[in-house]
Amino acid sequence: MSTPLIEFKGVKTGYGQMEVLHGIDLHVDQGEIVTLIGSNGAGKTTTLMTLSGVNKVWEGEIWYEGACLNGVPPHEIVARGICHVPEGRQIFRDLTVEENLRLGAYLRSDQAAIQKDLEHSFDMFPILRERSFQLGGTLSGGEQQMLAIARGLMGKPKVLLLDEPSLGLAPLIVADIFETVKRVNKEEDVTVVLVEQNANLALKTANRGYVLETGTITLSDDADKLANNPKVREAYLGG
Ligand SMILES: Nc1ncnc2c1ncn2[C@@H]1O[C@H](COP(=O)(O)OP(=O)(O)OP(=O)(O)O)[C@@H](O)[C@H]1O
Ligand SMILES: [Mg+2]
Question: With contact defined as beta carbons under 8 Å apart, do 137 and 149 qualify?
Fold first, then answer.
């Protein structure tokens, strides 16, 4: 068995005095789409924030590409190829679509390649080409989500962390976004960690999944097996 790309070993973290993750173990292999499902407040966002170095590990270890990430600052984690597309998107509302995309490449200096990747994002998300001069803040929710993902990809990440990409979007747009995520994963070999409350869609998109309940992982399996697991069906898939 090869070493996983990402590994959490007994990771604990929290806020102030309150422990939120109670020692979680999980791994993500190179090339996978792994989803983390769970109810509001389970600790999904906290897990991603800890992986991206924003939250400190209290106990346990996070490993990535054979190195321990504990104590590595967030900007260094980005530079090593882990890109976090946060909950709520956080695009720059007063910058145009193209400016937002260019900012995604801020760590790069290869201008010709950046231009090529910009064209490539427009091919992946044609709506963004149409809107390239429009201000980010005036895009629809679905367009903003596409922009957030496309901007993340402009940094040429090895791993994309997606936090609730479906939030507040119509089902058709969500399906479209998830198809694009699958394409990016396959065609560009980007490993994806997908946090979702929409368990149905997440399990259709991912290879494997973990169920997080109040800071503890209670189940992990192939996505199709989780989708057929009676407990998951009852709790997260509406029976
Ligand atoms: N900055 C913070 N300060 C204090 N407590 C926090 C902070 N962020 C999150 N929490 C708490 O940590 C717990 C886990 O929150 P988290 O955001 O990780 O959940 P989640 O699974 O992403 O939920 P949701 O599906 O609602 O996004 C919650 O009880 C939340 O109130
Ligand atoms: Mg969250």
Answer: no
Percent of the chain with pLDDT over 70: 99
Which residue's CA is the nearest one to ligand 1's atom 2? 15
Cα–Cα dist 230/37, whole Å: 15
Q: Residue 233: in which H helix or E strand, if any?
A: helix 230-236
User: Degrees (nearest 5) of the Cα angle 178, 183, 184?
Assistant: 95
Q: Which residues neighbour 67 within 8 Å (Cβ) at sequence distance 6 or greater?
A: none
Question: pTM for the full model?
Answer: 0.95
Q: Which ligand is nearest to the CA of 236?
A: 1
Domain positions in the chain are 31-40+80-236
Tokens of 237: 């898939």
* Whole-number average pLDDT of the chain: 94
| CATH match of 31-40+80-236 with 3.40.50.300 | yes
Do residues 203 and 209 lie in contact, with contact meaning Cβ atoms separated by under 8 Å? yes
Mutation to probe ligand 1, out of 19, 22, 35, 44 (largest number of atoms < 8 A from CB): 44
